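HOLO CASE FILE
Compound: TUI
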Amino acid sequence: MKTEITELLQIQYPVIQGGMAWVADYHLAAAVSNAGGLGLIGAGAAPASFVKEQIEKCKALTDKPFGVNLMLMNPEADAIAEVIAQSGVKVVTTGAGSPQKYVAMWKEAGVKVIPVVASVALAKIMERCGADAVVAEGCESGGHIGETTTMALVPQVVDAVSIPVIAAGGIGDGRGVAAALMLGAKGVQVGTRFLVAEETNIHPAYKERVLKAKDIDTQVTGRSGGHPIRSLRNQMTKHYLEMEASGATFEELESLTVGSLRKAVVDGDVKNGTVMAGQIAGLVSKPQTCEEIVKDLIDGAEAVLKDRFSEFAN
Ligand code: TUI
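Model generated. Tokens follow.
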């Protein structure tokens, strides 16, 4: 499947793995890249030295292009941005803010810059400052989200910019990939389905929660503080939402979530930790290798595009 994104990134299929904090390590990134998509190392809240190490380890596992996701609220964001520019990484994606101040440095180093945006406004700013593409991420996604759904966001971003748009949020199989292409996207970013990949090194209890999740099992905490986070419903989200409704302070709410993603991903505490996952978790029902997942996304999209076309053509 050839698109502007496969051409831009020199990859076989227009499938980008989400840069999930604590989850997306070099094993996962290399496996997705080796499967023909674009794997990402998620810098999350990690220090720059850790990210540098991950990049070197990823290079040892794959000759294909891979990228790094820089979460802009990371206290070492400046240092990580420099590591990305200096270490021969081919692609950077960013989240939870505007990467404007790093774009010139990355472009000079030959890194393709793909900011994740949740609004038309930020997409236009990113295009103006030289981004090569944007990921338009709808609020079906897990983790830190915006306000607009993928179905509404993607075509509006596609109309607003002339760089290629990658759709994210709620895409978990070939039907989602086909729908994204119909909305004008030139590629997809998939997170939740890769949570349960065999190459994903997270606690088995986290994978189990994703595999068992139903359509209505995610909740959004933190709307009151302006940093909404989507995760699977548990004791933590219940307690958080009760406290939020009763007008708890920012500090009181913070005390519930400091270190809580690590608690779920590493320790497997899926009751008190934050089990970030998107609304498509209900569709994710079996663990598979990254190769199987990428193949299913692409074969599924091609099949449904052919089928639906013949169904509606007359
Ligand atoms: O970044 C994400 N998803 C994430 S980051 C993350 S790690 C984290 N952990 C705890 C608290 C906060 C973060 C988990 N999931 N997706 C991309 C994304 N970016 N979604 C929404 C945005 C966004 C939101 C506001 C981008 C920019 C923005 O404002 C830009 C501005 O004007 O500053």
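CASE NOTES: The chain has 14 helices and eleven strands. The mean pLDDT is 97.
CLOSED: yes
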